[in-house]
Write a structure and sequence with these properties.
This protein has 11 helices and 23 strands. A 5-stranded mixed beta sheet has the order 4-11-8-9-6. A 4-stranded antiparallel beta sheet has the order 16-22-19-20. Strands 7-5-10 form a 3-stranded mixed beta sheet. With 445 residues, it is of the alpha+beta class.
């Protein structure tokens, strides 16, 4: 839908805005709000936290956008012996610091609460409708982060927040803009939620497809189409994590069929520095998809890494990255948190790759990793694992089938993800246009 603009505009007197509707004004946030940081009672003192009754929120609460429940409850004694302060309902809170995207995020309070010292309370005066200010600050998330060095670890402070320039429409118009955006963003958020539900179902379908095929063989119709027995008799594998398998499949120890690379190389030396170095963060969990490729030199790698031949299966041995498996696209390095695996006799690398992605193997690996002090799968444990081994011609057919069928699911996933991206971009653009006066929504709310 195309929205109308205002009839007349003027040059904006503040940064972050090029022009404003002529009847709007503008000023820095310091002149139109109270700002203060929170505090955290001593975490080591149970008397400050046990059976508390005063709401308290941490920085992660801003991810909710509209906060209706506390992160924790503190006691009156904890409140009295800390710098925590009450923040009224409808006020705004902003994360001054935090991991990832948290810094600079803003939320509105649906409850009166206190907060930690890494958050600022923003209490606008009578010239601001709090909901309109929320949308203005949301629209300027990146500008606000840039006040503290963008993606650097530096935190925001109250002085920086006071310097934020703000357009100031008449209060009634602010309320109209906020009401319009509440309605439109709710519609967009519903569509995004539906797409996310679809993606969840697609992931479940993909996982179920892999799990069934690598342990029980091809579905009857697919098996019949490639000349395999469509409904083979089953037998107990004798392996707890595996269950029943087709009667003609073998069971072998991991160490008999798979070689785990040993001996690390120095990634600072050539030719290793020029090779791609794959670490768990480069792999999409559960899909085997490479998200990124960087050389060892680009990653400033120092400690020893494993040399992986092309087509080796690279498996992350650490929890929580146990579902990260990929096939080496060429000769490369992998981090010491991963194992390069190559098959020896009966087992084929691509079949092993799909087997390691299966839910059954993932469940086994989580249980085994949790048995040790530093959660991971060690060589000895992996070498003792017993694997299902279909005949090689059947392994080839399974690999071909899974590559084709998961590609169909992945295509649907990509389309749904692209829709989410477009909706999110449209949502942000709509908010920005409304709070800056680029569109006139007074007759639409």
């Amino acid at each position: 839908m195309k929205y109308a603009a205002y009839n007349n505009y003027k040059t904006s007197p503040t940064a972050w805005l090029d022009q404003l509707p002529t009847h709007w004004s503008a000023a820095s946030l310091r002149w139109m709000s109270k700002r203060y940081a929170g505090g955290t009672p001593d975490k080591g003192n149970e008397a400050y936290w046990e059976d508390g009754e005063i709401p308290w929120i941490n920085s992660g609460a801003v991810n909710d956008g509209y906060i209706t429940r506390p992160s924790e409850l503190i006691t009156r004694e904890g409140f009295a012996n800390s710098s925590a302060k009450w923040i009224p309902k409808d006020a705004l809170v902003m994360a001054l610091a935090g991991q990832g995207k948290t810094k600079g995020m803003v939320a509105q309070l649906g409850i009166p609460t206190t907060c930690n010292q890494s958050m600022a309370a923003l209490i606008p005066d009578h010239r601001f409708a709090p909901r309109y200010l929320y949308y203005w600050l949301t629209a300027n998330y990146q500008n606000i982060r840039n006040l503290a060095g963008g993606e650097a670890r530096d935190g925001l402070n109250l002085e920086m927040l006071g310097s934020i320039p703000c357009p100031v429409p008449p209060v009634g118009e602010q309320q109209t803009i906020a009401l319009f955006l509440d309605g439109k963003t709710a519609q967009i958020d519903t569509l995004v939620a539906q797409k996310r539900q679809l993606i969840t179902k697609l992931k479940e379908k993909r996982s179920a497809l892999i799990a069934r095929t690598v342990t029980r063989g091809l579905p009857p119709e697919a098996a019949k189409a490639v000349g395999l027995e469509p409904a083979p008799a089953m037998k107990d594998s004798g392996v707890e994590w595996l269950g029943q398998i087709p009667w003609h499949w073998d069971i072998e120890k991991f160490s008999r069929e798979v070689h785990i690379a040993e001996g690390q190389v120095n990634p600072e030396m050539e030719p290793f520095a020029s090779m791609f170095l794959i670490a768990p963060n480069h792999i999409d969990s559960g899909t085997g998809r490479l998200l990124d490729l960087e050389t060892a030199a680009e990653q400033f790698a120092e400690s020893g890494k494993y040399l992986c031949p092309a087509d080796a299966v690279i498996y992350s041995k650490i929890r929580p990255a146990l579902r990260k498996v990929v096939i080496a696209p060429e000769q490369c390095l992998c981090s010491a948190d991963m194992y390069p695996l190559t098959c020896k006799k009966k087992l084929l690398n691509p079949y092993l790759y799909w087997l390691l992605l299966s839910d059954q193997f993932s469940a086994w690996s989580v249980l085994e990793a949790d048995r040790v002090a530093m959660p991971k799968i060690n060589r000895e444990t992996l070498n003792e694992l017993r694997l299902p081994i279909p005949p090689q011609n059947e392994q080839v057919k399974i690999v071909e089938y899974l590559a084709t069928e998961t590609a169909k699911v992945d295509h649907m996933f990509t389309k749904a993800d692209a829709v989410i991206t477009r909706l999110s971009e449209y949502r942000q653009a709509l908010i920005t246009s409304a709070v800056t006066g680029k569109i006139d929504v007074r007759e639409l709310a």
